[in-house]
Design goal:
It comes from Peribacillus loiseleuriae. This protein is an alpha/beta fold. Helix content is 18%, strand content 38%.
Length: 424
């Protein structure tokens, strides 16, 4: 009888001991017990756990640390003030619409050295102010935004690498944020600002997205020293889309190999100044937009430099156009010959896409000179510059593209001639 009682005691003890040990050893319990201002180092390993941090502590990974969860709540929830997360990998494997790897609210938090894998959202800021997120990588599955802001102000995002998400960094009703030196690729929009004012986008690279950056109903945005590259994989692709936005400053950026370099739609009083606009299908396009200023830009190697539709009152002066005829009689650096960007070829190929085969063909150039586009589609630069405003490397991209296109047209013409004769 004593032996049976002893065995029963061991069985009961074995059932309770693991649970007690696990509870005592969880990361959440360490966070709950920690005093304000302390540093908690997480030992190397994988942790299937969700964390809630609401007091000013530092949570720091020591070696390879992975926090992972597939539950509905975020892997890490941060609130209060002055929480720091450092050197941690976070993976959210849930597939619900609102699933989020890290959720942040409160003030003055710092997230750095993170690596996030998510099926939905990477980091969501909800009424979060003064937050810094830097030196972090976010990889998604194009079902949620990399970083998503809602009514969150005065935050800083720097040195982030974001790929394969819906929008790289999405701002809605969020003002005064700084987005600096980030690399965003293979997403829908690299940067997406809606109803957000006085934000600064500086030295970012937005590449191979559908749209490099979209500004929608946003005021006083500064877009400077960024690179918008190869955003051309869709019929709606563009480097920068300014939609119903005002007082935007777009200065010293590079728009290279996009479908449309800059698209300005229903927008007024924006300034496009000293940018390199190169090797795009359309350099700059206006639609129902007035009182915008396009000055001191360098247009090189674009199939169509500019187009305006229902946009007659924009100031386009003092730009360099490689397609312009240039004569400087008085030595002031400006050509005496007015430059008119005629989108005849663009209009023609929109109606009949097959005509793209005849790009730069002598006959098409002759037709363009004879059959002018409507006046409201012409952008006129009355003082085109003799020299470029931004340095353009002596690349072979444009000349090679034109050569390749010419060879293609010759081959196409030859094949049509041969097969046409055979059918007869």
């Amino acid at each position: 009888m004593k032996i049976m009682n002893y065995i029963m005691f061991l069985l009961v003890l074995s059932l309770f001991m693991p649970a007690v040990s696990e509870a005592e050893g969880t990361l959440q319990s360490k966070i709950d017990e920690a005093k304000k201002g302390v540093t908690i180092e997480i030992e190397e390993g994988e942790y299937e756990e969700t964390l809630v941090i609401s007091k000013p502590i530092i949570l720091k990974g020591k070696g390879e640390v992975l926090l992972r969860s597939c539950q509905a709540e975020p892997v890490v929830t941060v609130s209060g003030e002055s929480v720091t997360l450092q050197n941690i990998k976070v993976e959210h494997c849930g597939d619900e619409k609102e699933d989020t790897a890290i959720y942040v609210t409160g003030t003055n938090h710092k997230l750095e050295g993170l690596a996030i894998r998510t099926k939905r959202f990477g980091i969501r800021l909800d009424h979060a102010n003064g937050v810094t997120i830097q030196d972090t990588e976010i990889v998604g599955m194009k079902q949620g935004n990399g970083i998503d802001l809602w009514e969150s102000n005065q935050n800083t995002f720097g040195n982030l690498k974001i790929t394969n998400v819906t929008d790289g960094i999405y701002l809605e009703k969020s003002n005064g944020n700084t987005i600096h030196r980030n690399d965003i690729q293979r997403s829908r929009y690299g940067l997406h600002l809606m109803f957000s004012n006085e934000n600064v986008l500086d030295e970012n690279v937005s590449k191979a997205n559908i749209t490099g950056t979209m500004l929608m109903e946003s005021k006083r945005t500064v877009v400077r020293h960024n690179k918008f590259l190869s955003n051309n994989k869709s019929v709606n692709a563009q480097g920068l889309l300014i939609y119903m936005s005002t007082d935007t400053e777009v200065t010293r950026n590079e728009f290279i190999s996009n479908r449309v370099g800059i698209f300005i739609e229903e927008a007024e009083n924006n300034r496009i100044d000293s940018n390199k606009i190169m090797d795009n299908f359309i350099g700059v396009q206006f639609k129902k937009s007035n009182e915008n200023h396009v000055i001191r830009n360098t247009f090189v190697g674009n199939v169509n430099d500019a187009q305006a539709i229902e946009s007659a009152n924009n100031q386009v002066n003092g730009n360099y156009w490689d397609a312009a005829s240039k004569v400087d009689a008085n030595g002031d650096g400006e050509s005496e010959i007015v430059y008119r960007a005629d989108p005849y070829f663009l209009t023609l190929t929109n109606a009949v896409p097959e005509y793209q085969l005849f790009f730069q063909a002598p006959g098409l150039i002759l037709l363009q000179n004879i059959l002018k586009s409507p006046a409201d589609q012409l952008l006129t630069d009355s003082a085109p510059l003799m020299n470029m405003t931004m340095e353009v490397e002596k690349e072979k991209s444009t000349s090679f593209s034109l050569w390749f296109m010419s060879v293609g047209m010759i081959l196409a013409s030859t094949s049509l001639f041969i097969f046409g004769r055979k059918r007869r």
